[in-house]
Write a structure and sequence with these properties.
The complex is a heterodimer.
Chain A: E1 4-10, H1 14-23, E2 30-33, E3 50-51, H2 62-81, E4 85-86, E5 90-94, H3 97-113, E6 120-124, H4 125-131, E7 141-145, E8 149-151, H5 153-166, E9 170-172, E10 177-183, E11 186-191, E12 194-203, H6 209-213, E13 223-233, E14 244-247, E15 257-260, E16 266-269, E17 273-274, H7 285-298, E18 307-318, E19 329-334, E20 337-341, H8 347-364, H9 390-399, E21 406-408, E22 413-414, H10 415-422, H11 431-438, H12 450-462, E23 481-482
Parallel strand pairs in A: 1-2, 1-12, 2-9, 5-14, 12-20
Antiparallel strand pairs in A: 3-8, 4-8, 5-7, 6-7, 10-11, 11-12, 13-16, 13-17, 13-18, 15-16, 19-20, 21-22
Helix pairs in contact in A: 1-5, 1-8, 2-8
Chain B: E1 5-11, H1 15-26, E2 32-35, E3 51-53, E4 62-63, H2 64-78, E5 81-83, E6 87-92, E7 97-103, E8 107-118, E9 122-124, E10 140-142, H3 143-153, E11 155-156, E12 160-164, H4 168-179, E13 183-188, H5 196-203, E14 210-211, E15 214-220, E16 227-232, E17 245-248, E18 251-254, E19 258-260, E20 291-293, H6 304-323, H7 331-338, E21 356-358, E22 367-371, E23 377-380, H8 385-396, E24 399-400, E25 403-409, E26 415-420, E27 424-425, H9 429-438, E28 440-442, E29 450-455, E30 458-464
Parallel strand pairs in B: 1-2, 1-8, 2-5, 8-20, 10-18, 12-13, 12-18, 13-14, 25-28
Antiparallel strand pairs in B: 3-4, 6-7, 7-8, 9-19, 15-16, 16-17, 21-22, 22-23, 24-27, 25-26, 26-30, 29-30
Helix pairs in contact in B: 1-2, 1-6, 3-4, 4-5
The chains are: A alpha+beta, B alpha/beta.
Amino acid sequence: MKNLYDVAIIGGGILGAMTARELSRYQLDVIVLEKAYDVGEGATKANSGVLAAGFHPRAGSLKGVSCVQGNAMYDEICRDLGVEMRRIGSLYVAFNAAGADMLREKHQKGLQNGVNPETLRIVSGTEARSLERGLSARVTQALYAQNTGIIAVFPLILRVAQAASVNGVEFRFDTEVKHIAAQKNGYRLETSQGDFTAGFVVNTAGETAMAVERWLRPADLVIRPRRGQFVVFDKQGANCIKHVLYQAQENDEKGCLLAPTVEGNILAGPTSENVRDYKNTETTAVGLQHIIKVARKIIPDLDLGEVITSFAGVRSNIKNMVKEEKDFIIRRSAPGMISALGIKNPGLTSAPYLTKMIVNLLQEEGLLLELNPRFQPTLSLPAKFTALDPLQQKKLFAAEPRYGNIICRCEAITEGDILRVLAEPLPPKSLNGLKKRLRTGMGRCQGGFCTPRIIEILCREWRVPPEKIFKSIRGSHLVTGQVK
Amino acid sequence: MNRRHYDLIVIGGGPAGMAAAVSAKEHGLQNVLLLDRNSTLGGILPQCIHDGFGLYLYRQALTGPEYAQKWADKIMQTGVSVKPGSTVLDVSYTIPFAVTYIDGKTGLRTVIAQSLVFAMGCREKPLGKMRIPGSRPAGIYTAGAAQYMMNMQNIMPGKRVVILGSGDIGLIMARRLTLEGAQVKLILGQKASGLLRNHVQCVQDFGLPILFEHTLISTHGYQRLKGVTMAPLNSDGTPNLTRKRYIQCDTLLVATGLIPETELWRTAGIPLNAIAGIPADQDGQTMISGVFACGNVTHVYDVADMVTQAGFKAGAAAAGYVLHKNMEHSASNELLSAIDITEPKYGDNRALQPDEIICILCPSGCRMQRHDANGHIAIAGYGCKQGLVYAQQEMSNPVRTLTTTIKVINGAQPLVPVKNALPLPKAKLFDIMKKVRNISVTAPINIGQTITVDAGDVEIALIATANVAQKEKSC
């Protein structure tokens, strides 16, 4: 087994995966070491899927600039990788004079962060309601940002990583980095799956990025987990909201947004609270009540009966800095080692820009970037069978009749689709991996129908007993064995 | 494209759809197509291996697979065209109606019909719908998913189980899990529901802990479920957080209710009824002429027999629509209509009094007393003669029906459902289960076939309640 690389990337979240893809443009041996069974299992997974326009972060901050620049870079990424993204625009609504002040402040921040002035303007309450029908009558003004987008998060992280993979990047899962030691011409990374040697290291370990950096330099930042809870509503068809909706906070409410997803669901959240552990992805009654309260405030007629699930994600929050100074940190931790620290919202939007920064810093550290002549910028993987045109369907079905067996009825996913993704680059290794690739179990029955059937297919294809099928990571076995 | 034309297409092959298809044939329709997404007919019935089906229609406590087979036989006899393994993806409501479905034999296909019967049944409410906070680790299933795993796939969902919901599905799964060696740590429900006979034979018989007016307030665990927190309900329906309690478990079964499966109705442009079902009159006629709906897709029924009755009416009405005449009801329809299905009793969760016996023979659940005022044995309170016999038996040597599964070798399915030929002593159920777990039978197995289990001192005869074909030879 090969264990000598030019660059080792620790962490396969959106930033690690994008860095991997960026580096695959060059003639480099790159490896991504990921402790989970799949890419994007940390903060990336529990993302709102909103491409922020860039009026929230402090003016002139890295957060602000990377957000505006990153947002613009998504057109190309999504086109090249076939990821669905729509710039539907957002309304940041105010309910009173104080809110209107906040709204003007956001407007200024946005302009200073480089948002195109033509895409960012203040509109009246009436105009806001004409843009978004269900908006509360209490809304007095809104900041309308046309560049705010929504993106399919699972396909994004997946396609980025798959694109890196087809261009030669190696991904190792279930591989936790336990220690890094500097050695001649690079680093030795000790992992749960043996040692790896790399000339350069990129630390995009998200929640554990600070702990990773500490092996090579004294800690100066305190980064703690901060949890965000979300509520998902069932697909609403024509009643779905048309924009991402933020609100100027009244009293001491924490900010929550309402966003349509590319699939037509509505997402509401996140909350924001400190937790002790990055594994604490529990939702709470208080959190869910808060989200629903804010959601109702913005859209009073929201149908709460249509809630299908809730989830929470944990982001890295820098603790020992005042709010006004907090920012994303991309820095040289040691010679040849670059770390990304405190990356939280709008990290997904900023990721393409941050990636370029990381690669530039690596170059400054001496990484030789020679273009890879075989680099393929585009990736084309087929859509699910039921979404294809009849001719393609006929062809696929002739070769594999199991495209005719519906396994996930809510999302219309067939057995053939499952078999196809099992053979794709970076195939799924768990039930969640399949969900990330095909949306199995994400519909209104939440896996009630398909989970047992998927377990059966995975047992057959992977030739393992049912208790070896995991939901996500090691230890998350779905069932305990056979009845008899 | 040349599309196959039918008089009637029935969507869904559960008790409602099977009855509708048979009824339409009996009432004179020629070309009736039944589409069902499963490989075998019966809808949810094949996984409901317990007994209690057909008590009204047949005066017999059939198991789910037996009840399904009865109707599958009728489907064959009446000449209904059946396409199993076919999932309907789209319905066009302009006349003639077009139904697009997908299966493993022909791929995507559109067929047309003069009339439609919707019989898609219902699905289970997922935990997320209950807005119960907490983590989402492995080990949380709806009761029906767990039932499918255990009874159809030979998969054990977990070992230490909490069941949320005290309706019949939850109670039946509690017994099923207990018989297969899992520990049911608690059944909790907001209010008493479920048939009394199920409370007796699924909960009391095994001394399982059950709590009403309680609900789940959180789930815990990162990889696999580690436990749940529950709390009693205040009078306003909110949980009393000062009295919350943590229960260790690795599995949570959610049995909190069913929702009509109305996905295909969405494009009809007509709102659902107040209980989220397809609106239809008592003959199954919807607001679209020629489109009928019956069974759980209109509202969730309590008893399968009632679903069959509704399906039969809808099938007759569809035939009447196509043939432009008022139907003279067929013999079976008269039979079905004549049966008076009364709503069974629920919610009487008064603790069983020391002197009481609850009859489990039918959904009525009569509460009987053993003694008269003077303390003499004198059974009172029974609703029929069988009840009296049951009470006498219960006082001398309580017996039960045992429904379980046996491992199949070389079968198309891994398990065959079975029931006992003769009532078994209640006290011996676990001993017998131990033996049953260790035996296997070789496919093919025919419904009604006797399988003998050597239970030490006696031989026990079990009867297969479903057919299991031999595994197809893979090439």
